[in-house]
Amino acid sequence: MPTSLQDTTTLHNGVKMPWFGLGVFKVEEGESAVETVKTAIKNGYRSIDTAAIYGNEEGVGRGIRESGVPREELFVTSKVWNSDQGYENALKAFDTTMEKLGLEYLDLYLIHWPGKDKFKDTWKALEKLYKDGRVRAIGVSNFQVHHLQELMKDAEVKPMVNQVEYHPHLGQKELLSFCEKESIQLEAWSPLKQGQLVDEPTIKAIGEKYGKTPAQVILRWDLQNKVVTIPKSVKEHRMIENADIFDFELSAEDMQQLDALNKDERVGPDPDVFDYGF
């Protein structure tokens, strides 16, 4: 199990990815994005997750450059948006992302949503970027088991990561075990269900036992399920609190109680029907 904020999991191509990072969904472009990223890095975060659709890649890139931490010590993720899917479009979108970030290379590039019929062509573009050394790892986001199976039928490179909505109300057991079997690292977005889980009595009770907040309990549950997690926060005290999860371990019984909260309930869109922007 990871014992610090800098600890990494090794992706199936040998690249090391931090178990814990900062998501910047809804962080405003400009000074807010710059300061959020700098604050996180100052407090030990080494993984920053953005996306073209977040509209804050420029601020994120500036925050990275101004952080004072060498680029090679950081792990930066971005994602290709739905309207940029397809081979040529995805290659162009990547160039735009890199221009905005102002970086030489990306650590991880993801297809943001599967959609219906373009993700295989988009994947070919990601494979090219990977082979050309412009991205250290490639993956997908919001892919269900059947999407992954479909993609892997023709893929030359297997996805290294699948970033999905994941929290105790959406345990995704089948997807988690499929990804483990295929050596695809599962990563959680919205691990706290946009804050909706912090009042859950079971989670609060477990937290009290360890002197930890409900958020810390959930984030620890992620890690013990071998799921990379990227909670979002713009507040420094919250970033520090979120990362303070390496000094305790949930018992097998606690883990079962948290697993039992599953309702297959999403806070975000259902990947099987979400076609926004395509």
TrEMBL record:
Question: Which keywords annotate this record?
Answer: NADP, Oxidoreductase
| PROSITE patterns documented for this protein | ALDOKETO_REDUCTASE_1, ALDOKETO_REDUCTASE_2, ALDOKETO_REDUCTASE_3
- What residue stretches are annotated with the NADP-dependent oxidoreductase domain? 31-262
Q: Per its UniProt record, what Pfam families does this chain match? A: Aldo_ket_red (PF00248)
- Name the InterPro entries for this protein: AKR, AKR5G, Aldo/ket_reductase_CS, NADP_OxRdtase_dom
Protein name stated in the entry:
Aldo/keto reductase
